[in-house]
Amino acid sequence: xxxxxxxxxxxxxxxxxxGCADTNNPGTWDQAKVATxxxxxxxxxxxxxxxxxxxxxxxxxxxxxxxxxITVTQDPANKRLDWKAEGDRGSxxxxxxxxx
Length: 100
Hints:
- It is a single chain.
- A hairpin with a 4-residue loop joins strand 3 (67-75) and strand 4 (80-87).
- The chain is of the alpha+beta class.
- It has one domain (23-98).
- 17% of the residues are buried.
- It is elongated, with a radius of gyration of 19 Å.
- The chain has a five-stranded antiparallel beta sheet with strand order 1-2-3-4-5, with helices on one face.
- It contains two helices and five strands.
- It starts with a helix and ends with a strand.
């Protein structure tokens, strides 16, 4: 018969491991968190993203009215987020965000 004192630590370890997703990893961020990062990094007032292969794609709008086509690539292994933004007025911005 298993003792309660033996089963409880094992059960707690499994529960903690299952509930500890790496929410600080930009490579695994959800759509809302990536959109927030794009607004901040690119100084946009509006962002609309959809899931795409390896990340997200969509559009954004700056305060001056310039519209950007945005492509975001996520790299979970390197805890990294890379983006390319092409403006309708000729602006191009490449950037990244990562954590160590």
